[in-house]
Design goal:
Elements lengths: L4 H13 L9 H8 L9 E5 L4 E5 L4 H8 L7 E6 L2 E6 L2 H11 L7 E4 L5 H10 L4 E5 L2 H13 L5 E4 L12 E6 L8 H5 L1 E11 L3 E7 L6 E8 L15 H5 L6 E5 L4 H5 L1 H10 L4 E7 L2 E7 L5 E6 L5 E6 L4 H14 L8 E6 L2 E6 L7 E3 L15
Parallel strand pairs: 5-6, 5-8, 6-7, 8-9
Antiparallel strand pairs: 1-2, 3-4, 9-10, 10-11, 11-17, 12-16, 13-14, 14-15, 15-16, 17-18, 18-19
Helix pairs in contact: 2-5, 10-11
Amino acid sequence: MSEFIEERRRLAADMEQRGGWPARSPWIRQAVDALPRHWFAPDRLWRWDRHAYAPVDRGHAPKGWAAEVYAGPDEAAVIQVTDGLPSSSLSCEAVVVDMLDSLLLEPGHHVLELGAGTGRNAALAAWLAGPGRVTTVEADAALAARARERLETLGIEVTVEVGDGAEGWPKSAPYDRVIATYAVDWVPWAWVAQTRPGGRIVTPWGRLGHVALTVAEDCRSASGWMQGLAQFMPARGTAEAGRDFRQVRGEGPATNERPVVRDLAPLRADWNLLFALRVALPEVQIATAVDDDGVNAWLHDGAASWATLSAQGDGTTIAYQGGPRRLADKVEQAWDAWLGIGRPGVYDFGMTVEPGHQFVWCWDAAAGPRWPVREPGGAPCRPAAPA
């Protein structure tokens, strides 16, 4: 318990300063104190050195290793790199706490977690739910084995299974609470089917936020509000957005060129706008950067369409577009639509999941604007009228 005490105190103080410890769930801070992050971190972590992910070994650089574990409320510690990209992490403290708070967990609840990772999230849930009340499913057998060994060493009674999280874990169903530690774009119906009426499902959605869904009493749907913003790793095996910008852009000339009259700064800094664009245009990837000329943006759909919004240095911006879809036009139209309904923030959005059909809504699930969620392999989304 005396290891890395300064680092632990600093992280706890940072969480306190930002109001990160939820008043309605005081148990979470107690569990975090009882189960410190470094207990669950492997001896090798990975740090981005501006070129690639480089190993940071506890044995060779204990202070550097601890700095990765306790980097800050919004910093995850990468525990696995696959094909040069992070594929598993010790999630950042702020997100872990926020999602557990959203779960509304109570002692005795039967909990299913999807994505065991290091085992820490499951351990925190078990701290309140109780011994033998948490089952966690991990797709990576090696990660599952390490999590199981760590939990057993610490004397924490959690069941660790190897499987596809999208299928849930029907053998132990039904559950009072379900929580995923990785992002999905389509909420698996198995999670709803394996949750009791009135039960709660908390999952990252769209890789930009997380949602809390309550299962209806008739078990035919689950619905609830977005809970916050954060970026999450996708489900293992999820196809990324096709080709990257350079591949989509290719070498050919733009087929359309026009001036952009709006300030692009919100496209870089307004997370409520970015979330709304993610809802309206889920396939469009947006990247921004600032140089001496101003804010620049790069858009692509991972398939065949692209746009570059290039600051000219004289206060003007030019949009260059290529491919079958005019992505700069699409983004500006969605931006205007967001302005037109009153600039809703992330907490004004919610989601409803039904068998074979899911949609995100704003303001009101029944009467507000809504956007269908595209099922994997399905056609692109189109805005729908309110019910």
